Amino acid sequence: VISGWPVPNRATVANPQSVLEGLERELGEPYQVNPFPLTVEFDQLSNDELFRHIRDGLRHHGEAFEYLLDEYTLDVFFGVFMTVDIASHNFAWDREYLRQIYVEQDEILSDLLDRFPKNTNVVLVSDHGHATRGDKRFHVNEWLKENGYLATNSSNDVNLLQRAGLTQE
Q1: What is the secondary structure of 49-72 as a DSSP string?
Q2: SS3 (DSSP) at 2
Q3: What's the pLDDT tens digit per position in 11-61?
Q4: pTM exceeding 0.90
Q5: Burial of 129 by CB count in 10 Å (0-12 exposed, 13-18 middle, 19+ buried)?
Q6: Which of 16, 36, 38, 168 is the most buried (most CB within 10 A)?
């Protein structure tokens, strides 16, 4: 196991430690859970500099995931790319930078998918979307519940936030 975000970069992130040591030998640098500048640093960088940092972080994770898929026989692989999220937040109004990140992310995902054994189930998800228009929403937990894939422990399906008056509406 190699932990992912939000674990701090130099916390103990691997078990056994030898997995991380092999990964770092392959990368030629320390593995970074979050290879991006801190949010407070973003405003101090030019768009070109920020783009390079974001692209380099994408490549860092891509190389790490490729190594892990090539090196180990895994029953489950769960990799998190933070790149599109960070790029979308920072380049929402600069479509060319954003387009370049999406193209490179797609290329890296394609390379990773080629490494999986045939007939592997792959699930690709996003923590949220970015949009400037429309009112399309998809609530995963509601869909899972409506289709019989999710049940709650509460007899009346009311959680703490709902009891406090905090709802989607």
Answers
A1: HHHHHHHHHHHHHHHHHHHHHHH-
A2: strand
A3: 677 888 899 999 999 999 998 888 877 666 777 888 899 899 999 999 999
A4: no
A5: exposed
A6: 36
